[in-house]
Structures are given as C-alpha cells and as structure tokens.
Amino acid sequence: MADSQDHEHNKMQLKGVMGWVEYRLPWVNLLNNAVGTNYPTPRNLNYWWNFGSLAGLALVIEILTGVVLNMHYVPTAEGAFASVERIMRDVNFGWLIRYVHANGASVFFAVIYLHMFRSFYYGSYKNPRELVWWLGLIIFFLMIITAFTGYVLPWGQMSFWAATVITNLASAVPVVGTDIVQWLWGDFSVGGSLLGRFNSLHYALPVAIVGVAVIHMWALHEHRSNNPLGIEVKGPQDTLPFHPYFTAKDLVGVGVFLLVLAGLVFYAPNILGEPDNYVPANPLQTPNHIVPEWYLLPFYAILRAVPDKLGGVIAMGGSIIILFAVPWLDTSKVRSAKFRPIYKQFFWLFVIDTLILGVVGANAPEGNWIIIGQLATFYYFFHFIVILPVLGWIESPKPLPDSISTSVLGDKKSPEPAE
Amino acid sequence: MDETDSRRNFLYIATGAFATVGGGLAAWPLIHQMNPAADVLALASTEVDLSPLAPGQSITVKWRGKPVFIRHRTPEEIELAQAADPDDLKDFQPDSERVQNPEWLIMVGVCTHLGCIPLGQKDTDAKGDWNGWFCPCHGSHYDTSGRIRKGPAPENLQIPEYVFLDETTVKIG
Ligand code: HEM
Ligand code: FES
C-alpha cells in the first residue's frame, strides 16, 4: 500500500465478533480490496467482462460435482464403465450430478473461449497485462489436459480410443517416442494402468488450476481491468467501485449462465456427447470415426491438417504456444478494436477461421475437408505471424477519446459514485 | 575479489550444485514409477491353436493387451506379398523377413500411425487398396504382408516374437 494512513482509513470498522476476527484475520478487508467497494473498476465495462467470474463459477461447479462423482466412480478398466452406469441409474441424483459435470465442462470451455476472444478484441493482453494473459493460457492448457483425462474416465469406446490416439501422439517424438508412450501408459497398451493415472491427474489438475487462477487475479489486480475503450484509467471519475456495481452486473451473467447450463442438463444432456461413449471400451475394435469433444475440435483439425505424424503434433502444439507470443506479435499501440478499423475485420475473420477448423475437426478427413482444413490451419498461423504485426505498422487507428468518463458521460460532469 | 568472497562463492556454487543433483535424484523415482511395473513386465505369453484356420481365414488374439492378427494366407496373397516392388515400400522389408512360414502372417494389429485397429480381419471388412488391411482412422493401407503402402502411418505393422511349438501351435511372446 502506498501510504498506510490511507490503508487504515479504508479499513472496515467492524464491531463485536466480526471485529474480533477482523483484527486477527482481516478477511473482510481482503475481500473489500479484491471485489468490494475498495476496488476501483472502469465504469464502462460491458458484458464481455462477465466471463472471468463465470469461469470461476464453472470451476467451482466442476470441482464440487467432480468430488462427489469420485465417491462412486471406480478407476479400473473392469469397473469404470459399470460404475458410471451405476451413477446414472442407482446413485441418488447421480444422473443429475454427472450431467452437470459433463455439460459443465462444455459450458466452462465456451466461457473460456468467449473470455479469450474478448481479450483479442479489446487487446487485453497488451502491456502491462502480458502476464495476466500468460497465466490465463496456462490455465487453458491445464483445462485441456483436465478435460481430456476426464473424458477418458467413463471408459466407453470414445474414451478408450481418444486416449489411444492422443497418447500415441507422443510416439512421433524421434528415437524415444515409444519409450515415452509406454511411460505414459505404464503398460504396453492403453489399459487400467493409464486409467488409474488419468483419474489421479483429473483430480489433481483442477486444484492446480485454482492455484494459477489466484495468481492470474493477483496479476490482474495490480494494473486492474482493461476496458472497452482500451485507454488508461485517468482518475476516480473513470471508475466505479466493484461492489455493488459490478457484483450486480456479474450476477446477471450468473443467471444467464445457470439458465444455459440447466437447459443443457435438463433438456439435452447428451447433445454435446458422443453416443459411442455409451458402448463399453473394446480394445479390439476401433469405432469408425473418432472425434474429441467439440471444444477440442479446432486443435484436432490442425493436428490432421499436416500429413506428417510429427509435423501434425508440432502444428497442434504450436497453435497454443503461439498464443504466448501474441502480446508481442500484435505491434499496435492501440488496445481496443473499436479504434482499429482494419484489425476489427481481421478479428472476425479469425473467429470464422476457428469455427471452420471446428467443423473440419468434426468431419472425417476425406475429400474437400482435407484441403479446407489445411487452408484454415494456414490462416490460423498467418493471422498471428503476419497479420497481427503488419497491421500494427500500417493501420492508422481512429483518434482515442480523452478519457473514459468524457467518452461515457459526454460533457456531463461526472457524478460522484455512490458511497 | 577478496578471500572471503571467493570462499563464499564456492560455497554457494557447491550448495547449489548439490541441491540440483539431489533434486534430480529425488525426482527420478517419481518419474520412473510411471513406467510399466514388474508384474506388467513379467508377461505370460499366449499360445494359439491354428488348426481350425483354413487358408484365407484370420483370427485376432490378445497379447499384452493388444490385438495380434494371425492370418492363414492364400497362395495368391503370399505371391502378392513376395512380388512387391521394393521401390513401392515406404518402410522397406521383404516378405521373407516378416514371416517364419509364409502361410502364417502373425503381426501386432495396431496401426503404426496413432494406434487404431485396422480393418481386414473379417471377410466383409474393407481391406484397402492392397487387399490387406485398412485403418479407418486416418486412412492407412497395408498390403498382404502388413506393410504400409499408403496413408499417414510411418511403419509396417509390427511383428511380435513368436515360435511354432508344433505344426499348428504357435506361442506368441
Ligand atoms: C477443471 C475442471 C474439470 C473439468 C473441465 C472436468 C471435465 C470432465 C469431463 C469432460 C468428464 C467426462 C464427462 C462424461 O462424459 O462422463 C469428466 C468426468 C469425471 N470427472 Fe471431471 N472435470 C473437472 C474437474 C473434476 C474434479 C475436481 C473431479 C474430482 C475430484 C472430477 C471427477 C470426475 C469423475 C469421477 C469423472 C468420471 C465420471 C463421469 O464420467 O461423469 N472432475 N470430467
Ligand atoms: S491410426 Fe491408423 S491411420 Fe491413423
């Protein structure tokens, strides 16, 4: 804190038991500084800023439902499939808890993708928020591993063959590839040994995600939120206290989020899943068409776009690694696409490109899908490696407003935020 | 730099080096525990009775958790396999190196691309352009000797260790 005088002044004055506790463990103060009246927030944040809190909610839902699922789940090749069926049929509310967990994972990824596209549109990854972006990408990576290991647990046909195909990617590594794959399997084939360690990782990684998310928010709180205009906060007239203004706004998002999740769980619980996963794993028969969950389809399309085994793996890994370089590949000094007329169009092209990749990933690699997949993969990298840096040099941005408050309130004098 | 400084530096470097090596040694058990355990390595082999298989028939048996394809090849299949032009083979291997007895082709039925099980064991299966096996996952074609001919798989289907115990019994592994 800059000066302790100010610090003391902002401290809540609490009486009684609360005061007794607060004196010893200032948790109200901590919350107040993090998400309370003492956390100034740009007053112009729109609904695209809701997805961070929603991601946190989704994470909590996944952990709660996951911990209870694990009370009934049996992580062995012989027992896994039957234990999931038992959860669905016999365990009290097991069906509900499992459907919330499975669909919750989908909604979680949807939220994270929107959160990331928000960052692309408003240049949220730029100086001084590069590490906020990096920590977010680490969470994203951990989520992919978590979701993939989770998808294997029910030990259906898709579980088994997704595990086979994805762990075999490591065999593309020259010389030691086979050793790595057997190290991953703990066996000479995908089986109970792999299932056991996947269950262990699937339990542990979300805990790691919680840890990284805390650091992500720590870094965020240092320079605070970016905003739709992408310009700096110049003073108190540009901000509102987080509570009650943005706690209320976040709750609106929570309502919509829960409606969507409940809609999926109660009306279409299997729409995002693969029917083949209700067939028990059979190591002697591959399903005709192996597909990952929808949220990994674009990456699967990139993997298959390169006709070489090692090349495909490198391209897929590169498609995530390259995101770490985005704060430097984007050479424009202006953050928000609002003031970048050309970038704005390329942003939407990029969105369309990722959607095309998703469709390609869902289709068998035959005929036109191969060439479409290759073009879309090429464009994915072209966007980052060529378009982003070049646009920063050649584009002339529109004039930026003087401040958030003049832009939002016009000439009206800024009203005092309610105390 | 005076005497105490260099002594201190020495201590820093020595302590750091010990900590690094010690950390590495402590990490090894954590890494190695994931490798196949002793009971997994001590694998029983599988014995198979071949007498019911007429030429042109195949069976799949499980060995080390993986399918092993055993095919009683027809004379035409043997001829096709032996006549292959070496220039056409991505992973060159003459048929004679892949069989002990040309009538019996015994190989691990796992696609060398990403591990799917190729089709071709049943008469009704798609067998690919070389009338051997076809992997539906990403379209790899194998010939009547199980060699990769077309598609993303880099290698021929693997040949396991096996011995013929008598005319019609084979022990795999
Ligand atoms: C980042 C948070 C998480 C994500 C994205 C996630 C994702 C998934 C997914 C996609 C599945 C497969 C759903 C299906 O088709 O059945 C799954 C299953 C499972 N997860 Fe999670 N999970 C998370 C956290 C957890 C946690 C913290 C636990 C337990 C401590 C857990 C325990 C389980 C269990 C036991 C299953 C197998 C039962 C089932 O298939 O429903 N998960 N998870
Ligand atoms: S796994 Fe057989 S072609 Fe890819």
How much is the average pLDDT of chain A? 93
Nearest-angstrom radius of gyration of chain A? 24 Å
Order of helices and strands of chain A: HHHEHHHHHHHEHHHHHH
Largest sheet of chain B, in brief, is: 3 strands, antiparallel
Strand order of the largest sheet of chain A: 1-2
Number of domains of chain B: 2
Rg of chain B computed from alpha carbons, rounded to a whole number of angstroms: 25 Å
Helix content of chain B: 10-25%
Please identify the structural class of chain A as seen in this structure: mainly alpha
What CATH architecture label of the largest domain in chain B applies? 3-layer Sandwich
Describe the structure.
The complex is a heterodimer of chains A (419) and B (173). Chain A has 419 residues and is mainly α. Chain A has 2 domains: 41-232 and 240-290, Cytochrome Bc1 Complex, Chain C (Up-down Bundle), CATH 1.20.810.10; 291-407, Orthogonal Bundle (Helix Hairpins). Helix content of chain A is 65%, strand content 1%. The model of chain A is unreliable at 1-7 (pLDDT under 50). With 173 residues, chain B is α+β, with helices and mostly antiparallel strands. Chain B has helices spanning 3-32, 38-41, 75-83; strands spanning 46-49, 58-63, 66-72, 104-108, 133-135, 140-142, 148-150, 162-166, 169-172. A 3-stranded antiparallel sheet of chain B has the order 1-9-8, with no helix packed on it. Chain B has a 3-stranded antiparallel sheet with strand order 2-3-4, with no helix packed on it. Chain B has a 3-stranded antiparallel sheet with strand order 5-6-7, with no helix packed on it. Classes of the chains: A mainly alpha (419), B alpha+beta (173). The complex binds protoporphyrin IX containing FE and FE2/S2 (inorganic) cluster (FES).
Write the layout of secondary structure elements.
The complex is a heterodimer of chains A (419) and B (173).
Chain A (H helix, E strand, L loop, with lengths): L3 H7 L5 H9 L2 H9 L4 E3 L8 H22 L7 H10 L4 H29 L7 H23 L4 H12 L8 H9 L6 H32 L15 E3 H26 L29 H9 L3 H21 L11 H22 L5 H27 L9 H6 L10
Antiparallel strand pairs in A: 1-2
Chain B lengths: L2 H30 L5 H4 L4 E4 L8 E6 L2 E7 L2 H9 L20 E5 L24 E3 L4 E3 L5 E3 L11 E5 L2 E4 L1
Antiparallel strand pairs in B: 1-9, 2-3, 3-4, 5-6, 6-7, 8-9
The complex binds protoporphyrin IX containing FE (HEM) and FE2/S2 (inorganic) cluster.
The site of FE2/S2 (inorganic) cluster (FES) has 13 residues of chain B, from loops.
